[in-house]
Specification:
By secondary structure, the protein is an alpha/beta fold. It folds into two domains: 243 residues, UDP-N-acetylmuramoyl-L-alanine:D-glutamate ligase; 179 residues, L-fuculose-1-phosphate Aldolase. The protein contains 15 helices and 18 strands. The strands form three sheets. It has a nine-stranded mixed beta sheet, sandwiched between helices. A seven-stranded mixed beta sheet has the order 14-11-10-15-18-17-16, with helices on both faces. Strand 5, helix 4 and strand 6 form a beta-alpha-beta unit. Helix 5 packs across helix 6 and helix 7 packs antiparallel against helix 8. The protein is elongated and about 80 Å long. The N and C termini lie far apart (56 Å). It binds adenosine-5'-diphosphate and (4-amino-2-methylpyrimidin-5-yl)methyl dihydrogen phosphate. (4-amino-2-methylpyrimidin-5-yl)methyl dihydrogen phosphate binds next to strand 1 and helix 7. One of its GO terms (biological process) is thiamine biosynthetic process. One of its GO terms (cellular component) is cytosol. It comes from Thermococcus profundus.
Amino acid sequence: MAVLIIAGLDTGGGAGLKADIETVSALNEHPLPVISAITYQNPKEVRGIFPVPPEVIGEQVRAVREVFDVTAVKIGLLHGGAIDVVAEETKGLTRVLDPVIASSSGFQFLSPEDVDVLKKKLVPGSIVTPNVPEAEALTGVKISSVGDMKKAVRVLVEELDAEAAVIKGGHLNFTDVLYWDGRDFEFPGESVKGFTHGTGCAFSSALATFIAKGLELPRAVEMAKRFVEGAIMFSNREGKAVNPLWELQRDAQRWKAMRELETAVDKLVKTGELLNRYIAEVGTNFALATDFNEVFAVKGRIVRYGKTIRPVGLVELNASDHLRRALLKMREFYPEVRAVINLRYSEELVERAEKLGLKVSFYDRREEPEEVKRAERGTMEWGIESAVRRLGEKPDVVYHLGDWGKEPMVLVFGGNAEEVVERVHRLIEA
Ligand SMILES: Nc1ncnc2c1ncn2[C@@H]1O[C@H](COP(=O)(O)OP(=O)(O)O)[C@@H](O)[C@H]1O
Ligand SMILES: Cc1ncc(COP(=O)(O)O)c(N)n1
């Protein structure tokens, strides 16, 4: 199905047309991108806007509407001169209107006069999706609670003739409120950590796409909200913005990481007789992180099995809590480190690591502050951090000598699972 998008270009690759194209594509529909304005912006600031002439916007829309079977359109950033044309050219479509008035960095895209034209020409008949400040600007209702949001959505529909309205709570309490078909609907949400530049764009294009797929409005709003939560959680660090491709990228990375770790575990098992005596009493595990910091390991760990070794279960997500925390802490300092294994401590192992030129550091649990000890779950993080600081550069191997009831251990890190296997093989002279 084709979804029409009329929006502005964000040169920073965070919001606008690029986020919209990715959103529609990620949801498996075909985007028809019509450009309304070129903005010169980066994640810090919007420097300016070059409006595409209204007749050029009209030509773009006509070119695709004549050929594609379009039912829904998402309208994002416009400029004063474009509002009339867009209203005219989108007649007969289900219109999702994201009334972009200002950027999150504070640049004013529409003047108060433009906002008046938008209210008269485009809000009527559209499904409007303002954020809190935009809803205030459109309705004059001051919004500081869900109760206020409910008042304002009604104004948008009953006084400004919108077909429906969703006020988004990203600037308030993460609850979105929809008014449709004579009643309101609440969509509560939790705060998600990540970049939020482009959330409004992703939300409105996801909404238009779910509508094009035939979902009823409340369900489409729910799905769009969940989509945006993922796009924040797995956000685009480079662009400091949402990542509409999150689900595809996450799943592709999971698949690759699983294969990589399975292959590496097989290799280790092949040298099981040599490794047997280095397997920790509590079991050895082998963990691998994706770029999104999801960590795979062996369910049930790798254990001694007669003279050799054996993985108890399959490679799974979150199958090791300890190694996951060690690896994620190490990645805070050295993001290129992706894999780690724990082996039973022995002096000869540490000496051999040093002889091989690996960078070795350690932590001493007796130095662990009382409050970290009491919290229990912070020990691993504290240990890795203290080992990193002690060495002053990236450690390849971190050991600790144990404590009451804690087995001494050697952690071997690497840039990928294969590198960890190679290091282990050199250490045990396989
Ligand atoms: N930090 C966050 N955690 C979870 N959801 C968020 C967060 N920020 C925004 N959202 C959600 O993202 C969508 C877009 O909201 P909002 O950020 O208010 O729009 P805009 O980008 O237009 O300012 C809404 O569904 C909102 O609830
Ligand atoms: C081209 C374009 N469209 C929309 C936004 C709003 O996004 P945000 O509120 O995250 O700045 C933007 N900054 N640029």
